Amino acid sequence: MARILLLNPNTDTFGRHSIPIGYLTAILKERGHAVCLFDTTFLDTNYLFNKENHHTLLENLSFFKPVDLSPFDLKKKKVDVVKLFEEKLNAFSPDAIFFSFWGSQRHAGGEFVAYFNALKILEKSNIKEIPVFVGGIVPTWDAKEAIKNPMIRGVIRGEGEFAFADIADRLEARQDYSDVLNLWCKRSDGKIIENPMRALVDVLDKIPHADFSLYEEKTFLRPYHGKILRSLDFELSRGCYYDCTFCLSPFQRKTYDSPKNFRREKSVQKIIGEISLLKKKHSLDFIRYNDEIFLGMSDEKLIELAERYSKEVNLPFVIETTVRSITPERIKLLKKMGCLSISLGVESGSKFMRDTVCKKPQFENDELVKKVKIIKKAGISCNLFNIIAFPCETEAMIFETIELNHQAKPPYCMVGFFQPWEGTSLRDYCVNNGLLDGNLKGLENSSDNLKGNKLTGKNIGDDRLIDLHKKFIFFVYLPKVLWPLVERIFENNFPSKILLKVFSVILRLRFRLIP
Question: What is the pTM for the complete model shown?
Fold first, then answer.
């Protein structure tokens, strides 16, 4: 039996269960290994990561209904995180530390940030001679750079659950692990071994049912429409076949030379069995499916899934999908299954930005407005994702985005700043065109997406971008006749402060009309 410590450096107020950790835990246990988790969800890591609480930022921007946290013990403890981690190491005595895992969660952005946050914990800790193995987006994108880190013994490229498990098997047997597929590792003589990739897990049903039992009970408490409910993150499929330039999914696909089977789906039987088990085990009120295109499945499969899910699982859920995957018939099936909310990636109201710069799946603005109406008519909530501060974007284009959201009037919408993550083709464009210093690495070139980005030479100044970001929701939900007044709400004078208070009250009252 090998003893494996998993590191999950979550900075959000609420639990964000890493889906790959759930799978890896199940596989390691199935093979007889002992597994332990160090999770920072309820630890104050701001002094380590210099990152503000996202939940507070989202509420301050009026993206979601405010929620009362006072009845729940969800406050982050001000403790010495490094000391706690070292105590965990001493108590558990792991044979290896695994962290950063390849996944589609939050379109891989969450795993991107997790890699750098975990490094900060390890760099300040005395990990003795415990070997460290890492996976995920960043180590896959630049394995040569990752393997240079003296703390890191090996890098797992691509999908890593079974590669990590193979390493655990070798450690248990005290055998050489340097030939494990997907692994790049350092030998004692300093030589780097670069092993080839194994094939994708083509039949997702082969993966054991995910195991989230290592997480604290209160990590299952999540805000939803002003309430605290029990939930977790999960997926029914893997992979995306679109080429959005701002997203990491195309990079993940190219890592495997863009195979035809990159997008894979679990069978209906697997879905029913796995979700039923998770619902019962964790007393879930709802579940968040992180699939990039939930409605990427065939109509025939959706019909079968809707019939069985409604009868055998009966667990409400929220999803993300594309505009053109929405049809009245599919919405009826989602409603039958218990779908609570659908999130759609708009990104920009400018067709030029969507089609030419972002290379999103195409749709027309009036088409989006119609699809949102279809969703709302069915009694399903809707959230629109938007991005500003793209390269080439003008202020007029941002107002096209505002106008589109204003016309669609979704119950919820949110907006963030474009982040030039390594691995995205839009980052390459920015570097090649002098908009971003190519020497910036990791979090140096990817700021908090609610605060700004590091691009230079933008068509709009940073101060105005931040100003538009703060006013975005006011423009979307207030009548256009008030837009000239919205432009004044953050001016430093008494009338503007009164306007801000009045408009903020109006936005809060709007939430009361949303079921």
Answer: 0.95
